[in-house]
Amino acid sequence: MLDGLERILAWYLSDVRPFFPGTAPLFCDARGRALKPETVRDRLARLLDLEGRSGNDRFTPHDLRRACATHHYEQGMDLVTVQQLLGHRHIAATMAYVRPSMAFVEDAWRHATLTAITGLAG
């Protein structure tokens, strides 16, 4: 469902967003007000229903937020920056969002182990 997301966002920014020049929200309703979270959640659920997505293939805007946080962390963004990006007050909340893949964890472990061994070997 997220294939071609760049094209969709480019279309939105060039062809739709200009209809709301005096509004601050990036994504707004027909009246130019910020979309409510439940509106986004409900519309996404409806689209997933239309596609016939089953339980494991379904996701929510919150899942996308977690995926974004994890992606940024795995690409090297430090946890405090991810915290700022998400607007969390406490780092513990951000830590609950970031769910690195097992491959990422294993690679980090290998790198740390190699660094320790190299340091000990002198």
From TrEMBL:
GO terms for molecular function: DNA binding. Keywords: DNA recombination. Gene3D superfamilies: Intergrase catalytic core. Pfam families: Phage_integrase. GO terms for biological process: DNA integration; DNA recombination. It comes from the Bacteria. InterPro entries: DNA_brk_join_enz (IPR011010), Integrase-like_cat_sf (IPR013762), Integrase_catalytic (IPR002104). SUPFAM superfamilies: DNA breaking-rejoining enzymes (SSF56349). Residues 1-110 form the Tyr recombinase domain. This is Tyr recombinase domain-containing protein. The keyword Transferase does not apply.
